[in-house]
Amino acid sequence: MLEAFTEFFRQLADDYPRWNFIFFHEPRQWARIVKGLQHTIVLSFACVIFSVIIGVVGAWMQSSPSVWIRRFVQGYIQFFRNTPPFVQLLFFYFALGQFTPAVTGPDGWTQVPLISNIGWAIISLSFFAGAFNVEIFRSGIEAVPESTQEAASALGFSRLQTYTDIVLPLAFRVSLPALNNNLVNLVKTTTQAIAIAVPELLYQSVSIWSDYPSAQYPTMILLFFSFIFLVGILVFGMSRWERSMRIPGYGG
Fold it and tell me: Residue 147 belongs to what domain range?
């Protein structure tokens, strides 16, 4: 069955040279696609998790009694919201990356940066999306009635307990639709990691059609539908989560 599959695409490439699905009949190119997809999934998953954590913590810090903490959070939000994520990515990797320490590599003599290009991509994109998540969660928190927080305080809850046990669960329900949109944009933005040579799916696709120009159209199609699939999984999961957390009469 597999041999028939590969033979079909090999014959297709011979008959129609502009439609060379080389990754379906050459194991080495298929391995490059799989490697790129793995890096895209890891990068997307890590950025989604860390950006949500940044959003939750940042929203809590916004209500801090300290004016300096609130100003720090506002400065962070304005910095990352008002500059392009592509520029941020280059800044983190090429500017801040020069100041990170290096460790000895496996061969015992080369120096390897402590934070790799994948690490910098995760850091940069997480901070970028996290700035939007802070505002998303802040709007959700503001939708929680003040009387609810006052009741928690009257019952002896600390500020942190009120936030984690009462305010955040309610705010999460209100924030999920906007959070869903932001995380979808984040997954699509991971393609910009090609600028610092992260071997994600776009990087591998460009490498393939650079080596084999006849594979350009098929690789573009594969890239297009791969992201439709990845984003579709995220949207489906977030939609199911949103429906499961919905409270009738609260937050729509």
Answer: 42-102+112-200
- The pTM assigned to this predicted structure is 0.89
- Side chain identity, residue 181: N
Per the document, the length of the chain is: 252
Average pLDDT taken over every residue of the chain: 89
Q: What are phi and psi of 196, to 5 degrees?
A: -115, 25
Backbone angles phi, psi at 156, to 5 degrees: 95, 10
Q: Which residues are CB-neighbours of 39 under 8 A, at least 6 positions away?
A: 118, 198, 199, 200, 201
Helical axes 216-245 vs 27-62, angle rounded to 10°: 40
Tokens of 14: 């011979």
> How many angstroms separate the CA atoms of 116 and 106, rounded?
15
Tokens (6 digits) for 224: 């297009």
Residue-wise pLDDT for 94-123, tens only, equals 998 888 877 776 766 777 788 899 999 999
What kind and span of H or E run contains 103?
A: strand 102-104
Higher pLDDT pick, 28 / 155: 28
Check if the beta carbon of residue 198 is closer than 8 Å to that of residue 117. Answer: yes
Q: What is the distance in angstroms between the CA of the first residue and the CA of the last residue of the chain? A: 50
Specify if 13 maps to a domain. Answer: no
Distances (CA, A) of 59 to 56, 110, 131: 5, 42, 10
Residue 245 domain-assigned (yes or no): no
